[in-house]
Design a protein that fits this description.
This protein has a single domain, classed as HAD superfamily/HAD-like (Rossmann fold), CATH 3.40.50.1000. Helix content is about 40%, strand content about 15%. The chain contains 6 helices and 6 strands, in the order βαβαβαβαβαβα.
Length: about 160
């Protein structure tokens, strides 16, 4: 368990993530964030491109699970549209929900990757669980608080970029 919130891999979007990135590392289980990772806050339904990405990951033998801090109906809506199981109100960066989901689904932290857009929730939760941490750029900055958060995360994003050179 680590509290150092630097991701293992950084990409611009989920669409730059190939199944091989995970399978080469022995990862078989992907925990996915929704908000600003899979879809911007303003999008309320899954797109064909998103469905295709999920299908490609599943065709490669990866199991996907939506783990969201969202308390509303958004996780249910996306999970139903993508045919994925979900858990909402996960309280990331606290690792309890992620650990429960891994145990329930039968995967270890070494077999699990966490994909999200936020350092202080998604990446930190992955680190605290001992999972492979993948950070994608936030899709859109819909308010000033998201821009402020991104600015505060900048040193960790810079370190990750440096590590990936």
């Amino acid at each position: 368990m680590s509290f150092w919130p630097v991701p293992d891999v950084m990409k611009r979007s989920i669409y730059e993530l190939s199944p091989r990135l995970f399978t080469n590392r022995g990862v078989r289980f992907l925990l996915l964030d929704i908000d600003n990772t899979l879809a911007p806050y303003t999008l309320h339904e899954a797109t064909p491109r998103m469905r295709g990405w999920v299908r490609d990951m599943e065709a490669a033998g990866l199991r996907l699970f939506i783990l969201s801090n969202n308390r509303g109906s958004r996780p249910e809506t996306f999970a139903a549209a993508l045919g994925l199981p979900y858990r909402k109100h996960a309280r990331k960066p606290f690792p309890r929900a992620a650990r429960e989901v891994m145990a329930q689904e039968g995967f270890t932290p070494a077999e699990t990757a966490f994909i999200g857009d936020q350092i202080y929730t998604d990446t930190l939760c992955a680190r605290r669980c001992g999972c492979f941490a993948v950070l994608v750029r936030p899709i859109a900055f819909s308010n000033i608080w998201l821009r402020l958060r991104y600015w505060l995360e900048f040193p960790f994003r810079l370190k990750a970029r440096w590590n990936n050179l």
